[in-house]
């Protein structure tokens, strides 16, 4: 997900965080006194790539610059906008990168860095990404506000399931155990009412992976519906560009190749490479002076960009949801359309592979995910007895769609069957 807008000079402090939590409580108590609890099904929100706060605690033997902090306990690693500015971005990259172990085939933080999600089960870490500036990285807040307005309660009938979005589902066993417990607990504290899973982007794939591993009786008992929003079911071509050249995370004044070190090391990026089920063997995605690369040339791309680890990681993650097996629960798919979406890249002598940003050709999609990928889940209409529907929002951009009033109305009226 992109960070957005400009930076300010305020550092996130525990003080601000406490203020936010306090605001939420005030909103909660005033709203809930007036509005009686609804009869609606409880909701669990599963965020997408970059869609949750990550907190870090560091005690490092060495740093990349004298001004990078060596030791600090529990600060917001993601998202703190100042940390993405030139200079401090190097400290961020060195904390946020993952190190791949080709024996265990897992990733971990560099020595002296601990990273974790916070407030599992609450909505706070998925409503706003930068806790010091809640007006900035707005995320699930509009949906939560919409639910609270019809009687939902934060932390009780609308809950968040944050996870470390840098990793792919094969490294998220603890998260999936937590998610199982969260669903069962939410069902119970809401009078044995089944749960609706509302997910965004990467969270749709995580949730599909999860549902594919639950038994049918368990799903029949606990899951009312799955409402995936902006699902990159067959990946996004953008992922390959980010792996090759990096992405400057919105409009910040940093060179993409600086952030690339961290981005490349995150297995979720490889997990989001487009698949050969939806991209043909003759369809060139990346063109350089030396070669044309298709979906079948990932090994060569990683070799040619001198990042062989990328291929190892890709082998671990490519099969996790490759078949897009039907989830076996009612599905209300939602996605945008008619937003120019990158699909083909050219590197040449002015913009050499892999260190420069390529020329980009655009096609149909939601601005991040290509159309055919957004629609790939529709095949479930023929693969499961439960209903599978599609709600398209013209102009609904990948992330901003979460703020769209039409979307929120649809979630409340159609997905939750509330007036
Ligand atoms: C990271 O977590 C481990 C286990 O909880 C702890 O022993 C270690 O001191 C922590 N390191 C840092 C840098 O916080
Ligand atoms: C695993 O990594 C080590 C150290 O980087 C390297 O020497 C070795 O060749 C790698 N093995 C495989 C199978 O990739
Ligand atoms: C979640 O929110 C509730 C109510 O706002 C609060 O009592 C609880 O401590 C929070 N839990 C976490 C883990 O933040
Ligand atoms: C799992 O749940 C525990 C307890 O709520 C929480 O402390 C922990 O951060 C969660 N871990 C993951 C990976 O979800
Ligand atoms: C890549 O494909 C284009 C169009 O099909 C072709 O003109 C070009 O020669 C190819 N480049 C290489 C290096 O094969
Ligand atoms: C939300 O989507 C609807 C339907 O496409 C569109 O008419 C409306 O302008 C959108 N609203 C915003 C704020 O983007």
TrEMBL record:
Q: Which InterPro entries match?
A: AB_hydrolase_fold, LACT/PDAT_acylTrfase
User: Out of the domains of life, which is the source?
Assistant: Eukaryota
Any single Pfam family the record assigns to this protein: LCAT
Transmembrane stretches, start-end: none
Any signal peptide, and if so, which residues? 1-29
* MF GO annotations: O-acyltransferase activity
What keywords are assigned to this protein? Signal
GO:BP terms for this protein? lipid metabolic process
Q: What is this protein called?
A: Group XV phospholipase A2
């Amino acid at each position: 997900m992109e960070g957005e807008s400009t930076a300010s000079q305020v550092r996130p402090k525990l003080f601000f965080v406490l203020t936010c939590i306090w605001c939420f409580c005030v909103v909660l108590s005033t709203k809930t006194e007036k509005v009686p609890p609804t009869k609606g099904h409880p909701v669990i929100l599963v965020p997408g790539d970059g869609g949750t706060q990550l907190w870090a605690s560091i005690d490092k033997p060495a740093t990349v610059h004298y001004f990078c902090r060596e030791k600090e306990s529990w600060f917001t690693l993601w998202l703190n906008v100042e940390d993405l500015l030139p200079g401090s971005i190097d400290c961020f990259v060195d904390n946020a990168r993952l190190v791949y172990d080709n024996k265990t085939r897992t990733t971990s933080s560099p020595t002296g860095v601990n990273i974790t999600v916070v407030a599992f089960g609450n909505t706070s870490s998925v409503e706003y990404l930068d806790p010091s500036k809640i007006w900035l990285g707005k995320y699930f807040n509009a949906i939560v506000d919409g639910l609270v307005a019809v009687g939902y309660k934060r932390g009780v009938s609308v809950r968040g399931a944050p996870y470390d979005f840098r990793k792919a589902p094969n490294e998220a066993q603890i998260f999936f155990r937590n998610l199982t417990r969260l669903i069962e607990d939410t069902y119970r504290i809401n009078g044995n009412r089944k749960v609706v899973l509302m997910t965004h982007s990467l969270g749709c794939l995580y949730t599909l992976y999860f549902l594919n591993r639950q038994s049918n009786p368990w799903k029949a008992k606990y899951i009312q519906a799955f409402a995936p929003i902006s699902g990159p079911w067959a990946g996004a071509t953008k992922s390959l560009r980010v792996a090759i050249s990096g992405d400057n995370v919105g409009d910040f004044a940093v060179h993409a190749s600086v952030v690339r070190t961290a981005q490349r090391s995150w297995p979720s990026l490889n997990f989001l490479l487009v698949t050969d089920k939806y991209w043909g063997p003759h369809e060139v995605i990346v063109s350089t002076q030396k070669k044309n690369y298709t979906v079948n040339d990932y090994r060569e791309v990683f070799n040619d960009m001198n990042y062989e680890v990328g291929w190892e990681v890709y082998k671990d993650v490519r099969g996790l949801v490759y078949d897009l097996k039907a989830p076996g629960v009612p599905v209300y798919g939602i996605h945008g359309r008619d937003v120019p979406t990158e699909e083909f890249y050219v590197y040449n002598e002015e913009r050499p592979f892999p260190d420069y940003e390529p020329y980009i050709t655009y096609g149909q999609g939601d601005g991040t995910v290509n159309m055919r990928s957004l629609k790939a889940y529709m095949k479930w209409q023929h693969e499961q007895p439960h209903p599978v529907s599609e709600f398209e929002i013209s102009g609904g951009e990948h992330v901003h769609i979460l703020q769209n009033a039409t979307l929120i109305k649809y979630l409340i009226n159609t997905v939750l069957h509330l007036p």
